[in-house]
Amino acid sequence: MWRQDRVCDVMKVVSRKDLIDAFHNLKHEDDVLMGIFGVVSLGIWFAISPFILAIIQLGILEYEIARFSAKCRQKRERIRRDRSLELMCLDSKSRKKKEKHKTRNRFLRWCFGARSQPDRAIRSQSSGPCLFFTRLPPEIRRQILIHAFGSRTVHLDLSFRHPFRVISHDKCRLLGQSPEAHLHAGISTRFGLFHPNIVLYDESEKKKWRWFSCVCHRARPHDPLLSYGRRSSVNHLGSTDNHEDNCLSGEGTCVEWPGEVPEKCFIGATGWLLACKQAHDEGIEVLYQTNTIQISSPVLLQGAHDILSPFKLSMIRSLELALDGFNVRLSQVLLGVSPNRPTSSSGASAPLQTRKPLFPSLAFLRLFLKSDQRFLDDDFRDSLRQSRYGRKNTEERLLTFTLPSIDDLVNRIVSPTTDVTVTFREWMFYSLMDLKLAEVQGLEETRLQRADIGGLKFWRKTPHSGLEQQTSDGNGSSTNKLREGYWVHISQMPKTGGGIDEQDEERRKLYGLD
């Protein structure tokens, strides 16, 4: 209404008498033409201005409706994500209840003979003995399975997303022959300005919790092979560490590995695991005990023990956790994502002497801090603010907050016999700790040396070293000493990236680099 009133006011000002007086005052023909053009333009504007304002209002209304619908859609997706995640996080009582229902249904089917025809067909086909299990001894079978899908670093990811947009097999093979094509797992990507690759998703399907697993191709085949499929980057400046790992973004060194893309980017053990029960049991044992599991998903970093069964957690021998400091803080790692999870003696609130490790059989644990400055405080913004106060304040925060937080995390999730390595990304943060701890702990306790995985490392002695830990299980309780310490590591970097140069004679002498 206010726009219509405004138009009426303007029309009153421009009356007929004013227009006639204006034409009488014009002295030249050009002025007459300009006056006529101005009057016509003004009339056209007054005629179409309500339509223009209506179109603008419709555009604003459409924008508000789209914005409101997007908020509602995000809210529905968030509710569906939380509900589906809660269904995956079954506690011990729910698992027992679910197994009880399965056993009862199996007993009823056995009593009343309710078997489906495909089930009978499968039973009749698999009734004969398998020569692979009857002729070959277990040791030979295990070596075959390890050669088939063992001794690798495997990415394990769980995220609430659309499915990946996958490139066709013919195009994968065509691009896989080019060294410039960093193609991995057939994931379709496009070039990004601030990121090497931007993953493309198939938005025609709804978002849901999706599992994804692939072989890690951040290393190269000529890198030295360590235990459990780990790779070393010693004397190879071209090799990348976990900080430059972009396998989940569709980028890797797949072209240097033998095989065809994208088949060589996956383990391909699904068919074997579904063959029979014995094949499943032996295959699962090889998958979890001979491979290194690499986790960077925020959901798994917070609640892998809520989603994976305790039996699978007990089989893992080598584990890598990549923390970005933004989605998951050090105090949130493996504390659980299920709100209905009952508190037990293995939780964070239990005393240090009575905690039961989440990975009791773990031999190697490696923690990657992808952004060192994000771990100077428990709050993300305060952490970034702490790194701006100079080297002295950064050193104090590293020694009083970051390392003690890592001490609590390591003592909570793994046993004292696990070899733990904490990898920092930037040389500045590492250089603020190695000589300082060597001065406090002593050179013999600090043990400055080269790392077998590449780079340098020193020993961090935990303050709880020497105390006894009591753990209880179904057979009774046991007592052992707490962890003595863990390794603090920096990946191998070229001299231009801030590595040890020839002028730092003290550090080169302590590490034995001369």
UniProtKB/TrEMBL annotation:
Keyword Transmembrane helix: yes
Protein name, UniProt field: F-box domain-containing protein
UniProt entry tagged with the keyword Membrane: yes
Keywords annotated in UniProt: Membrane, Transmembrane, Transmembrane helix
Segments traversing the membrane: 32-61
